């Protein structure tokens, strides 16, 4: 009988808990958007970890939050749908912040699911051994966990252990994806995420929720790939922020995103960016669908 295991896992936790960074560190390739601002992970992006004896498919979800807009509601629905489909859930709690109401809320939300629950204490590089021990104690009070694993996505500490633990909770199953596959997101989604990430660099805190990116066209021409994309904002004033004085800022956004996309595609890229205003796109079902939500 084969002892091969394969299945799905996701990391949950309050905003800024380190979920995206952890997913990226485990998969070993930049696939999910990360930023130092909360709630910027939009799409469900899967990374696939290949081991001789197992395949772990990581699903990245946005944070659960109090829905103020239609987008907020859809994101929450998306998160719950994902939770009900995975075999293991890692609840991420940063080592350097007190366990709080947000953590208990999520712990109780996931407590009823069929998935195995693993508590993941993240960012251990930021605390002393003593602080970490205290945090592990506090976290163990949050719920019934199959395992508790402290780790750091930045120093790499314990990432192997975490992978082994997540795999131990997967069912016996044949391989789900081919060996070469790291992510099954269509290229245009990854490209849109890279542009969005670049557009968010250094802008005001309320802006993250107001930016969406739509890749209109990807045209391969030999060794060059031409990409046409629109950056959507909600108001004229936001458009001015994104473009910047004499379009300097937009130029930088384009350069940053282009470098990343060239890495992703392994080809030279011509990137054409337009900033467009879609009034209140977060509240408009038609706009939301168009933008992929
Ligand atoms: N020092 C340190 N910082 C980390 C670590 N993991 C994540 N961070 C930082 O914590 C911040 C939040 O990380 P993200 O991975 O974006 O967090 P998230 O939980 O995906 O956040 P949302 O998308 O808001 O839900 C970023 O500034 C990261 O650089 C870690 O292991 N050590």
The average pLDDT is 84
By CATH, the topology of the largest domain is: Rossmann fold
CATH class of the largest domain, anyone? Alpha Beta
- Fourth-level CATH superfamily of the largest domain: P-loop containing nucleotide triphosphate hydrolases
Based on the structure given, which CATH architecture of the largest domain is correct? 3-Layer(aba) Sandwich
Strand order of the largest sheet: 2-3-1-4-5-6
Q: Enumerate the distinct ligands.
A: guanosine-5'-triphosphate
Shape: globular
N-to-C CA distance: 42 Å
Number of helices: 9
* C-alpha Rg (nearest Å): 20 Å
Largest sheet: 6 strands, mixed
Binding site for GTP: 13-20, 60-64, 122-125
Main location: cytoplasm
Domain KH type-2: 203-279
GO cellular component, one term: plasma membrane
How would you characterize this protein structure?
By secondary structure, the chain is α/β, with parallel strands linked by helices. The chain has two domains: 5-168, Rossmann fold, CATH 3.40.50.300; 187-290, K homology (KH) domain (GMP Synthetase, Chain A, domain 3), CATH 3.30.300.20. The chain has nine helices and nine strands. The chain has helices at 19-27, 70-83, 101-110, 129-140, 159-168, 187-200, 236-243, 248-265, 285-290, and strands at residues 5-12, 45-51, 54-60, 88-94, 116-122, 147-150, 212-221, 224-233, 268-277. The strands form two sheets. Strands 2-3-1-4-5-6 form a six-stranded mixed beta sheet, with helices on both faces. Strands 7-8-9 form a three-stranded mixed beta sheet. The longest helix is centred in the last third of the chain and has 18 residues, at 248-265. The chain is globular. The relative contact order is 0.15. Mean pLDDT is 84; it is low at 30-43. The chain binds guanosine-5'-triphosphate. The site of guanosine-5'-triphosphate (GTP) has 23 residues, from α1.
């Amino acid at each position: 009988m084969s002892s091969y295991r394969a299945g799905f896992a996701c990391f949950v936790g309050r905003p800024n808990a380190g979920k995206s960074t952890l997913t990226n560190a485990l998969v070993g390739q930049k696939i999910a958007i990360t930023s130092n601002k909360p709630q910027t992970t939009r799409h469900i992006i899967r990374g696939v970890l290949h081991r001789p004896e197992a395949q772990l498919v990581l699903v990245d979800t946005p944070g659960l939050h109090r829905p103020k807009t239609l987008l907020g509601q859809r994101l929450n629905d998306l998160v719950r749908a994902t939770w009900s489909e995975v075999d293991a859930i890692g609840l991420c709690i940063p080592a350097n912040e007190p366990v709080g109401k947000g953590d208990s809320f999520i712990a109780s939300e996931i407590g009823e699911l069929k998935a195995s629950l693993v508590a993941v204490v993240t960012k251990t590089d930021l605390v002393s051994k003593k602080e970490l021990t205290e945090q592990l104690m506090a976290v163990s009070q949050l719920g019934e966990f199959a395992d508790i694993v402290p780790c750091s996505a930045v120093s790499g500490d314990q990432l192997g252990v975490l992978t082994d633990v997540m795999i131990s909770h997967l069912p016996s199953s044949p391989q789900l994806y081919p060996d070469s596959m790291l992510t099954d997101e269509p290229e245009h989604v990854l490209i849109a995420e890279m542009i969005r990430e670049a557009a968010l660099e250094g802008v005001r805190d309320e802006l993250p929720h107001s930016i969406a990116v739509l890749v209109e066209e990807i045209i391969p021409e030999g060794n060059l790939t031409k990409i046409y994309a629109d950056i959507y904002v909600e108001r004229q004033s936001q458009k001015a922020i994104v473009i910047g004085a004499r379009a300097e800022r937009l130029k930088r956004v384009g350069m940053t995103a282009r470098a990343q996309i060239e890495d992703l595609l392994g080809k030279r890229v011509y990137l054409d960016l337009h900033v467009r205003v879609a009034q209140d796109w977060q509240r408009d079902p038609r706009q939301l669908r168009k933008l992929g939500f």
